[in-house]
Design brief:
By secondary structure, the protein is α+β, with helices and mostly antiparallel strands. It has 2 domains: 66 residues; 67 residues, no CATH class. The protein contains 3 helices and 4 strands, in the order αααββββ. The longest helix has 20 residues.
């Protein structure tokens, strides 16, 4: 077959589309992958072409990839949008300082609302902006997922 990587890529994409439509459980993908691998081994043992088994495995891999990746990766800080919070974490890199603001990248470890306990935040990096005091007010702004 000419251009096998194109066919494998198309089958991988077909697996993603099938997962998006039917939303199978991961168990079915593992079972299908095991069945396809056994078929491929049998075809190889009988000196037959196993390319179609490889294509079937690409379909299974595409569906499993989407199933395990999750539908959307949303920031764990999204529920705190528009609220004033305290964050605790580690500064990553050096701050960028402009004439009207300063910006830091912070890996957030914990977050706290006023009068509440600290919440552990899994693997979240934010950009913290400090706008220099021009109007008498100090203002901080967080940009999640930076």
């Amino acid at each position: 077959m000419k251009r096998p990587l194109i066919w494998i890529s198309l089958c991988f994409a077909a697996g993603i589309i099938l997962e998006k439509i039917f939303n199978f459980e991961p168990f079915y993908y593992y079972a299908a992958a095991a069945a396809v691998v056994f078929c491929a081994l049998a075809l190889i043992k009988w000196n037959r072409d196993a390319f179609f088994a490889i294509l079937a495995l690409a379909v299974v891999a595409g569906g499993l990839r989407l199933d395990l990746a999750g539908a959307e990766k949303i920031s764990s800080l999204a529920p705190f949008a528009g609220e004033k919070v305290h964050i605790e974490g580690a500064v990553k890199g050096t701050p960028e300082i402009n004439e009207d603001r300063a910006r830091w990248r912070i890996k957030v470890d914990r977050l706290k609302r006023k009068n509440e306990d600290w919440l552990i935040i899994p693997e979240e990096t934010v950009m913290v902006y400090y706008f220099f005091d021009r109007s008498g007010e100090k203002d901080l702004f967080l940009e999640p997922g930076a």
